[in-house]
Amino acid sequence: MISEKTSQKITGIFLIIIMILGYTWGQGYKFADEMFESVIADVKTEKIISKHLHTNNEKDVNTMELRAKNKDGKIIPPYSTIANDFNSNLPFKNEMLTLNSHLLKRLNLREVYRTNGGVVLPNGYVAGVYPYTSTEYETKQIEDFKLFLDSNQIQLLYVNKPTKYVDDSYLMETMGISTYINDNSNRFLEKLDLLDIKYLDLREQMSDQSSFNYFFRTDHHWTVPAGKLAATSIAKKLNNEFGYNIDLSLYDDEAFVYKEYRNAWLGEQGKKIGIPFVGLDDYVSIIPNYPTSFNRFTGDRTITGTFEEALVNQNVYLPENNQNPQNASSWHYSYLGNNGRIQNNNNTDGKKILIIGDSYDAVTNAFLALGVSEVQGLILRNFSGNLRDFIKNNDFDTVIISYAAIMLGAHDNENSANYKMFDFE
Question: Of 61, 92, 126, which residue sits at a domain end?
Answer without folding.
Answer: 126
